[in-house]
Task: inverse folding
């Protein structure tokens, strides 16, 4: 890098930042690296122009990242919906199986799950209006 044409460390730093920014954002966007030489006579205007270019590039990257994040959020929301639906279906199935199982089957099943915990009370069979079990 030829820094002899720059008078102050600030001008050198701006030149280095400019080249880094251009190459970094070009690589992000898949473009070719562009090399731009700063003119000492218009260093103030060049700094403003560089700042504007950097700001535009950062806005572009920010927009790209926001789009990618929104897309990922939509995918995750859909997965959550599917999992909630599946969970609800399994809960209904579990409730149905519990109501259809005999108390002995429930007791045996509970003893397999947690031998140290007492089995919960089994659901009572629904009764018909005449008082007999259905």
Result:
């Amino acid at each position: 890098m030829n820094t002899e044409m720059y008078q102050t460390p600030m001008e050198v730093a701006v030149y280095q930042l400019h080249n880094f920014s251009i190459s970094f954002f070009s690589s992000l966007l898949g473009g070719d690296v562009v090399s731009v030489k700063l003119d000492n006579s218009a260093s103030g205007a060049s700094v403003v122009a560089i700042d504007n270019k950097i700001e535009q590039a950062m806005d572009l990257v920010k927009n790209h990242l926001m789009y990618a994040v929104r897309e990922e959020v939509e995918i995750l929301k859909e997965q959550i919906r599917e999992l909630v639906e599946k969970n609800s279906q399994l809960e209904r199935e579990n409730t149905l199986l519990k109501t259809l199982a005999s108390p002995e089957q429930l007791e045996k099943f509970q003893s397999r799950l947690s031998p140290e915990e007492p089995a919960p009370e089994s659901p009572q069979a629904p009764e018909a209006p005449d008082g007999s079990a259905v």
User: Anything to note?
Assistant: The two ends are 91 Å apart (CA to CA).
